[in-house]
């Protein structure tokens, strides 16, 4: 006997996801108050964590939900920092320069998408790396940057050290919350369903009337903007811009590690992966080359033995979804025969 599916059986939220949403608000409010009680070192480390969450979420959106695997996202990270330095040197307030720089990154990514989204699979991944390498070379030609010597964000000195640190912390927290919230809303919309349909089968999605190119371009530009924000924030925290550092492929490697370990294609996975990476870096970052070797080994082990990532394993084992972006069908329990 077949079961008729009624609208009240289809749900977007679960009890655990409602609790998670409420807890997220409380956690964000608590984090906003921490500069009043924590020292400078802890504030700097938490700022780094927020930036890692942004980067992981943006790469997960691009690759995990859109199927666009890139090893060149460092181009947007570097441009976010570069544009910030450039604008600040023309007289813009450094914090205003960060916001404008992020928008410029999104603007640059749009014409870039016209070319890059013509590439498929490995061609797209390597193509993005080539674009990053070329952009690095072009930035080196800027006389202000002085090649690999770099440039400091000198205008930040107009702010007292403590005030500057707190402002950067709050901006990073606000950016993380805003980007995660915007991404979550997008993925739960009709466009989000289109994004995931394209990932699963591009030809089938096109046959259903989905504008594949425009949808992929939207995701590409959003990911570029978010990573540009991360680059600008990292510069504000570090104060010095050196092209070889900001255009290094290590940034994309970190993004891939966080998403693979946390769970690719799962909203919670990127956040969990960023937290895991942050903890590992805090404890073992001083080991230098061995630290990087360890990260590679951990990523390889997860790929081999836990391909769904840590959150994917938890979700599969316990059926927990704290931030669901799809629909859930709950069928009524079959009635017992007397």
3D structure, described in words:
The structure is a single chain. This protein is an all-alpha fold and 338 residues long. The chain contains 14 helices and four strands. It has helices spanning 15-33, 40-65, 74-89, 94-116, 121-140, 161-187, 190-200, 202-207, 212-238, 243-246, 250-262, 267-284, 289-305, 309-318; strands at 10-11, 151-152, 240-241, 328-329. It has a two-stranded antiparallel sheet with strand order 1-4. A two-stranded antiparallel sheet has the order 2-3. The protein starts with 9 loop residues before the first strand and ends in a 9-residue tail after the last strand. The mean pLDDT is 87.
**Tally of DSSP β-strands:** 4
What's the rounded overall pLDDT mean?
Answer: 87
Radius of gyration: 21 Å
The 3D shape can be described as globular
Number of helices: 14
Helix content: over 70%
User: Major beta sheet, specifics?
Assistant: 2 strands, antiparallel
Low-confidence stretches: none
Structural class: mainly alpha
Order of neighbouring strands in the sheet with most strands = 1-4
| SSE order | EHHHHHEHHHHEHHHHHE
How far apart lie the N and C ends? 18 Å
Strand-residue proportion: under 5%
């Amino acid at each position: 006997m077949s079961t008729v599916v009624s609208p009240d059986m289809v749900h977007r939220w679960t009890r655990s996801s409602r609790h998670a949403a409420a807890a997220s608000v409380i956690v964000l409010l608590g984090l906003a108050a921490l500069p009043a009680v924590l020292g400078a070192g802890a504030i700097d480390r938490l700022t780094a964590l927020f930036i890692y969450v942004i980067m992981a979420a943006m790469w997960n959106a691009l690759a995990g939900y859109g199927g666009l695997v890139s090893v060149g996202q460092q181009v947007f990270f570097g441009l976010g920092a570069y544009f910030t330095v450039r604008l600040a040197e023309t007289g813009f307030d450094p914090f205003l320069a960060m916001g404008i720089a992020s928008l410029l990154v999104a603007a640059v990514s749009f014409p870039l998408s016209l070319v890059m989204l013509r590439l498929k699979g490995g061609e797209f991944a390597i193509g993005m790396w080539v674009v990053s390498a070329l952009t690095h070379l072009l930035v080196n030609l800027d006389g202000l940057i002085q090649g690999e010597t770099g440039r400091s964000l000198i205008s930040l000195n107009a702010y007292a050290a403590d005030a500057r640190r707190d402002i950067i912390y709050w901006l990073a927290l606000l950016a993380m919350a805003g980007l995660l919230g915007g991404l979550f809303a997008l993925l739960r919309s009709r466009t989000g369903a289109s994004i995931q349909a394209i990932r699963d089968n591009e030809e089938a999605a096109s046959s259903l009337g989905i504008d594949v190119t425009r949808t992929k371009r939207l995701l590409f530009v959003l990911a570029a903007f978010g990573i540009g924000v991360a680059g600008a924030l990292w510069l504000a925290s570090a104060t010095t811009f050196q092209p070889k550092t900001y255009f290094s492929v290590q940034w994309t490697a970190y993004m891939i590690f966080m998403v693979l370990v946390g769970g690719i294609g799962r909203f919670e996975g990127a956040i969990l992966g960023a937290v895991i990476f942050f903890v590992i870096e805090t404890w073992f970052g001083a080991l230098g080359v061995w630290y990087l070797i360890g990260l590679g080994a951990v990523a390889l082990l997860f790929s081999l033995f836990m391909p769904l990532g840590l959150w994917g394993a938890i979700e599969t084992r316990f059926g927990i979804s704290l931030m669901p972006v799809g629909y859930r069908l709950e069928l009524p329990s079959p009635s017992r025969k007397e």
